[in-house]
Every structure is written in C-alpha cells, then in structure tokens.
Write a structure and sequence with these properties.
By secondary structure, the chain is mainly α. It contains five helices and two strands; from the N terminus they run ββααααα. It has two domains: 31 residues, no CATH class; 75 residues, Tetratricopeptide repeat domain (Serine Threonine Protein Phosphatase 5, Tetratricopeptide repeat).
Length: 127
C-alpha cells in the first residue's frame, strides 16, 4: 500500500485530544484519484492579454465616443501595465477632468510629470 507522509498542518488532535504540530500522518493515496481533465471544471476567470498600447488605443476610442468613465478604466489599465507610459497618465488625467474628478486628474498629471519632468503637456494640465 503506497502512502504519503504529511505534516500535521491542520492541527488535528490525536486520540487523547492533544494537538501535535510535529507529528506526521500517513495518507493512503492509492485510492485517491485526480479527476480526468474532461471532468474538471474550467475556472471562470476573465483574463485579457492586452498590452498597454492596446488599452491606450481603446481609451482614445472611448474618449472619441465620449465614454469618459470607461476611458479612465482603459487608461488606468495601461498605466498599470507600463507605469512609465506618460501619454497614458496624461490621457487618464484628461478623462478624469472631463468627469469633473479634479483630484484624480491632478494625481494622474502629477504621475505623468514624475515619469517625464520635461513634459510640457503635464505641466500645462497641472496649471
């Protein structure tokens, strides 16, 4: 009978009610079976494989459609994927300004200025 030694990580009590963290238990894994791949459930994760540039372009399209809230999400995703993407920070600030969320707009423009201190657009938008 094949068995596997595991440590008592669940802190299960012994027959006398004591918890022995240093004890090792055996598990009979000859009867344990991993389900076949066709029987396993697929994870319901929504993963996207978009680049920072793709999120940025999506944000520009959303700005053109005047969907500023969705544009902020796209620009924010772009900045999270590539923090030094100064144009994404600037456009994020512009989208926040259009939504009248001036504190977030100032933060985005300040981040753009932190990435590129010579950016005239970031300086202008902060003023």
């Amino acid at each position: 009978m094949p068995s596997l030694l595991i440590s008592n990580t669940n802190n299960e009590p012994c027959n006398h009610g004591w918890i022995h963290a240093d004890r090792i238990a055996t598990i009979d894994y000859s009867t344990f079976r991993i389900p076949e791949p066709r029987q396993r459930k697929a994870a319901s994760l929504e993963l996207t494989l978009q680049t920072a540039d793709e999120f940025f372009n999506q944000g520009i399209q959303l700005i053109d459609q005047r969907s500023f809230s969705e544009a902020t999400e796209a620009f924010f995703s772009s900045t999270q994927l590539q923090w030094i993407f100064t144009a994404a920070h600037i456009e994020l600030g512009n989208a926040y300004s259009a939504l009248r969320q001036y504190d977030k707009a100032l933060e985005a423009h300040t981040n753009a200025l932190g990435n590129d201190p010579a950016s005239l657009i970031a300086h202008y938008n902060i003023l």
